[in-house]
Structures are given as structure tokens and as C-alpha cells.
Structure prediction request, 111 residues.
Amino acid sequence: MTSEMIQSILMFAAALLGQIIGASLLPKTNGFQDLKWTAISLLSFGMSLFVISLLIKRGFALSIVVPLLSGLVPLTVGLVAIWFQGEPASYAKIAMLIAACALISLAGFIS
Prediction:
């Protein structure tokens, strides 16, 4: 694996993490009334979008990067909500979330 590939993987992971953190913090923003959590959430989303733009500048297809994120972010945020924020979940809910996210991610690879 080349150093450029490793950099790209790390950049994608940073973009993914930024989206996950931003979305996971939305309940703490209290409808954007709590300025501290709102700023952290928006900065996280902003950092993620900046990194995504750098990935696209490097030559990654928008039609690949966005569907991958669109599949991984809801799945991961859903799991964070269940595990760390105490949201109720059934096996059916988790299975449907995984299936939906997999389909969204796969759609990005269809030409």
C-alpha cells in the first residue's frame, strides 16, 4: 500500500468521524440553543465536508465517496445512539438499519 493510499484512507476515516461526531452531538445542541455543543457539532460537520472536498480534489469520485458516507454514517450514528445514548433498539431495527445502509452504499457502485 502506498503512502498516498494510506493518506486517502485516513482522510476518509476523518471525514467519516467528523460526520459521526457532528450527528451524534445533535441532541446535546438542544435545537441549536446550547452554543457550545452547537459550535462543536457544526465544526465537526464542517471539518468533514472540508476533508471530503480534499478527497474529491485528489480524484475520488463524488458518486463513490458520498454514498459510502451515506451508508456508514447513519449506521454508525444509530449504533452510537443505541449504545451510548440509551435509545431502544430491537434486532429488527438494527437489521433494517444495516440493510438500508448497505443498499445505499452499494448504489454508489452501480453505473
